[in-house]
C-alpha cells in the first residue's frame, strides 16, 4: 500500500476542447499505463457516443505511477470530469474525491464561464487549484494575457502557471511536478473502520455494478464483508482494484486511494452515488458527508411511433437507467399519442443523447414532445403541485399562483459582443445582477427563467458572439410569474401533446409563430387542416393547411426517374415519423415546432 504522502488525487477542470483528454492521454503515456497501440485511441472517453460527439460524459478514473524528479514514485489518481454544462453535477461529485484540480486553459483562448464555475466549486470544497496553460505550441497563444485573466476572474495566483502543449508533449512533465508540489496528499485514519465514498456506479453486462470509490478511512480488501450505508444491505467485496486505465485487480485499496469495487450488486440503485460503504461489523461508522443528488431539469414525453414497441421501449429505458441514475421516467398516457413515458433529463444534450441511444441501440422510433421545465402551481385550496407536463395543469379557475424556476446564469463574453448578449438576455426576460469588465472579456450575471435558458439559449449565446461567449447556470429559486397554458387544436381537437406553458406577454406571439411553423411542417393531405392556438377558450391564432390537389411527384413528370424515386423514398421515410391525430398525419418536427420558433 502506498503511503499517504505519496498519493495525489486530482481532477482536471477544462472547458470543452481546451485539451483535457489529450493531456490525460499524455499523462497515461508518460506513466506507462498503456502500450502505444492502446494509446491510439483517446482512452478516457469510453462510450461510443461520447467519442462521436467528442465530449466526455461519464466520470472515470485512472491511477498513474509517476517517478518524480525527487526520485520518489507517486501514485496519482486522476478522476475524469465531463465538460458539458448539462453534466456539471458530475464535476462536483468527482471533485469530492480529490485534494486538487488542474485548471487547464487554452492559452490562445482564455477562461470560459463553465471552468470558472467549476473552479469555484473546487475552491469551495477546499481543493488546491493548479492553473495550466495548454496549447502553447499554437502561434496565437497569449500566456500572459490568459494568466492575468485567470487571476482576475478566479482570483488564484497564475503568473507562474505551468505552460505546456498536450499535443507535442512539451511541459507535460512539469505539470505533474507542479501537481505533486502544490496538491496536498490525502489524509485519513488508516487504522479506522472502513469509510469509502461512492463517486460513481455503472452497470457492466459481465460484472454487474462496478463502483468507483474513494477510501476516506481504513482499508477495503477483497473478501471483506461490507455494508452499503443508505440501503443497509450487506455484500461481499468480490473484486477490488484500480484503473490503469485498464481495470486491474489489486486485492485492496488503502486510505486515500481511489479504485473500483465489485460486490455482485445487480442494480445501480443498490450502490447509489454519494453513498458510503463500511464493514458489516462497523455499521455505525458515519456517512461521508455526501453531495446533493441532482434532479432532472427538463421533461418531455417520449412515445413510440408504433404502439407495438411500447414494451421494448420500457425495457430499453430500464436498461438505460441501469447506467444513468439521472434519467427519470414514468408512464404517460396521451390522448393524441397513446402510451409512452414522461422522461426527465439534466438538459437538452442529455435528452438528445438518450433519444439517440434509444433509437440507435434499441431500434425504437420515437415521437418526442416539446421539452418543458418543472413549474410550481399553488391551487385555490392552498395545495402546492409540481407540474412537469403542461397537459396536467389544473383548471385555470383553481390556480391561485404559478411559479417558474429561475436560474442564475454567468456569461463570459469578449467585449465586442457584449451588446448582442445583453440584448439576448433581455429578450429572454433576464434581469442583470452584475457586470464586471476584465482584460478582454466581460463577466455578466443574469437571473433568467429556466424555461428561457434550457432549450436553445446556449446556442443563441454562442451565435450572438461568434462562438466566443461561454455560459454556466444553476437553479436559484421558484418565482411567481404570469404564466398561461397555450393549447394547439387540430381540426378543432385539442392535442394534449402539443400544449405548452408560456409567459402571458409572449403567448400571442408564440401562439402565432407555432401555428405558422406547424403549417409549414404538416404535409398537405386530402382535406383542409385547421390549426389553432388557444388560451382557454380564446383562440389567438389560426391557420389552414390547404387540401392537396395534385401528386407531389407530378412536377417530376417526364423528368429524372432517380429523382422521382428519391422523392418517394423520402416520403416513405418521412412517414415513419408521423403520428395520426384523428385523420391528420403529423410529423415529429411539428411536435417540436415550439423549439424552432425564432425569437422576435
Ligand atoms: N495545437 C494544440 N492542440 C491541442 C493541444 N491539446 C489538445 N489539442 C487539440 O484540441 C482539441 C480538443 O482536445 P481534447 O483533448 O479532445 O479536448 P477536451 O477538453 O478533452 O474536450 P472534451 O473531452 O470534449 O471535454 C483536439 O483536436 C486536440 O488535438 C495542444 O497542446 N496544442
TrEMBL record:
Binding residue positions for GTP: 17-22, 134-137
GO cellular component, one term: plasma membrane
Catalytic activity: GTP + H2O = GDP + phosphate + H(+)
InterPro entries: EF-4, EFG_III/V, EFG_V-like, EFTu-like_2, G_TR_CS, LepA_C_sf, LepA_CTD, LepA_IV
Broad class of the protein's primary localization: membrane
One example GO MF annotation: GTP binding
Compartment(s) where it occurs, according to its Swiss-Prot or TrEMBL record: Cell membrane
UniProt-listed Enzyme Commission number(s): 3.6.5.n1
Domain called Tr-type G: residue spans: 5-187
Coiled coil: none
UniProt KW Hydrolase keyword: yes
Keywords assigned by UniProt, alphabetized: Cell membrane, Elongation factor, GTP-binding, Hydrolase, Membrane, Nucleotide-binding, Protein biosynthesis
One GO biological process term: positive regulation of translation
Residues annotated as signal peptide: none
Membrane topology of this protein: Peripheral membrane protein
NCBIfam families reported in the protein's UniProt record: lepA (TIGR01393), small_GTP (TIGR00231)
Membership in a protein family: Belongs to the GTP-binding elongation factor family. LepA subfamily.
Primary role: Required for accurate and efficient protein synthesis under certain stress conditions. May act as a fidelity factor of the translation reaction, by catalyzing a one-codon backward translocation of tRNAs on improperly translocated ribosomes. Back-translocation proceeds from a post-translocation (POST) complex to a pre-translocation (PRE) complex, thus giving elongation factor G a second chance to translocate the tRNAs correctly. Binds to ribosomes in a GTP-dependent manner.
Name by which UniProt lists this protein: Elongation factor 4
Lineage per the UniProt record: Bacteria, Pseudomonadati, Pseudomonadota, Gammaproteobacteria, Pseudomonadales
Amino acid at each position: 500500500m502506498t503511503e499517504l504522502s505519496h498519493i495525489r488525487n486530482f481532477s482536471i477542470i477544462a472547458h470543452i476542447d481546451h485539451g483535457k483528454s489529450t493531456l490525460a492521454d499524455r499523462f497515461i503515456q508518460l506513466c506507462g499505463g498503456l502500450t502505444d497501440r492502446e494509446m491510439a485511441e483517446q482512452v478516457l472517453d469510453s462510450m461510443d457516443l461520447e467519442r462521436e460527439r467528442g465530449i466526455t460524459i461519464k466520470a472515470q478514473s485512472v491511477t498513474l505511477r509517476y517517478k518524480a524528479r525527487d526520485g520518489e514514485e507517486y501514485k496519482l489518481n486522476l478522476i475524469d470530469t465531463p465538460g458539458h454544462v448539462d453534466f456539471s453535477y458530475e464535476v462536483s461529485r468527482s471533485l469530492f474525491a480529490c485534494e486538487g484540480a488542474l485548471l487547464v486553459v487554452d492559452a490562445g483562448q482564455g477562461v470560459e464561464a463553465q471552468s470558472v464555475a467549476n473552479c469555484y466549486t473546487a475552491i469551495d470544497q477546499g481543493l488546491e487549484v493548479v492553473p495550466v496553460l495548454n496549447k502553447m505550441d499554437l502561434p496565437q497563444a497569449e500566456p500572459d494575457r490568459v494568466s492575468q485573466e485567470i487571476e482576475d476572474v478566479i482570483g488564484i495566483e497564475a503568473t507562474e502557471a505551468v505552460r505546456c502543449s498536450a499535443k507535442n508533449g512539451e511541459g507535460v512533465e512539469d505539470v505533474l511536478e507542479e501537481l505533486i508540489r502544490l496538491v496536498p496528499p490525502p489524509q485519513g485514519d488508516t487504522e479506522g473502520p472502513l469509510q469509502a465514498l461512492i463517486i460513481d456506479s455503472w452497470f457492466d453486462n459481465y460484472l454487474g455494478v462496478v463502483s468507483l470509490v474513494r477510501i476516506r478511512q481504513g482499508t477495503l480488501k477483497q473478501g471483506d464483508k461490507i455494508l452499503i450505508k443508505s440501503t443497509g444491505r450487506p455484500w461481499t467485496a468480490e473484486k477490488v482494484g484500480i484503473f490503469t486505465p485498464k481495470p486491474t485487480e489489486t486485492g485492496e485499496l488503502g486510505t486515500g486511494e481511489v479504485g473500483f469495487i465489485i460486490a455482485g450488486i445487480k442494480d445501480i440503485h443498490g450502490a447509489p452515488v454519494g453513498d458510503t460503504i463500511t464493514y458489516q461489523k462497523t455499521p455505525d461508522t458515519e456517512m461521508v458527508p455526501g453531495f446533493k443528488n441532482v434532479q432532472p431539469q427538463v421533461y418531455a414525453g417520449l412515445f413510440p411511433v408504433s404502439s407495438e414497441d411500447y414494451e421494448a421501449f420500457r425495457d430499453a429505458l430500464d436498461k438505460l437507467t441501469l447506467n444513468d441514475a439521472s434519467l427519470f421516467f414514468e408512464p404517460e398516457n396521451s390522448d393524441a399519442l397513446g402510451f409512452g413515458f414522461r422522461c426527465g433529463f439534466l438538459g437538452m444534450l442529455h435528452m438528445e443523447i438518450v433519444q439517440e441511444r434509444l433509437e440507435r441501440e434499441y431500434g425504437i422510433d420515437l415521437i418526442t414532445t416539446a421539452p418543458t421545465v418543472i413549474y410550481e402551481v399553488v391551487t385555490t385550496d392552498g395545495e402546492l403541485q409540481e407540474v412537469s407536463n403542461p397537459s396536467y395543469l389544473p383548471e385555470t379557475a383553481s390556480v391561485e399562483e404559478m411559479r417558474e424556476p429561475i436560474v442564475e446564469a454567468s456569461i463570459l463574453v469578449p467585449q465586442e459582443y457584449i451588446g448582442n448578449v445583453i440584448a439576448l438576455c433581455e429578450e429572454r426576460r433576464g434581469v442583470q445582477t452584475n457586470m464586471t469588465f476584465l482584460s478582454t472579456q466581460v463577466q455578466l450575471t443574469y437571473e433568467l427563467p429556466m424555461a428561457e435558458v434550457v432549450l436553445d439559449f446556449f446556442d443563441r449565446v454562442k451565435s450572438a458572439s461568434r462562438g466566443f461567449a461561454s455560459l454556466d447556470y444553476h437553479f436559484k429559486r421558484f418565482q411567481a410569474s404570469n404564466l398561461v397554458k397555450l393549447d394547439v387544436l387540430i381540426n378543432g381537437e385539442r392535442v394534449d401533446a402539443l400544449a405548452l406553458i408560456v409567459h402571458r406577454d409572449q403567448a400571442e406571439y408564440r401562439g402565432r409563430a407555432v401555428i405558422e411553423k406547424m403549417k409549414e411542417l404538416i404535409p398537405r393531405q386530402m382535406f383542409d387542416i385547421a390549426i389553432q392556438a388557444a388560451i382557454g377558450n380564446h383562440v389567438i391564432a389560426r391557420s389552414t393547411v390547404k387540401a392537396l390537389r395534385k401528386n407531389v411527384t407530378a412536377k417530376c413528370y417526364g423528368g429524372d426517374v432517380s429523382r422521382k424515386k428519391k422523392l418517394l423514398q423520402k416520403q416513405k421515410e418521412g412517414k415513419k415519423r408521423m403520428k395520426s391525430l384523428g385523420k391528420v398525419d403529423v410529423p415529429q418536427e411539428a411536435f417540436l415546432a415550439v423549439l424552432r420558433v425564432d425569437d422576435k
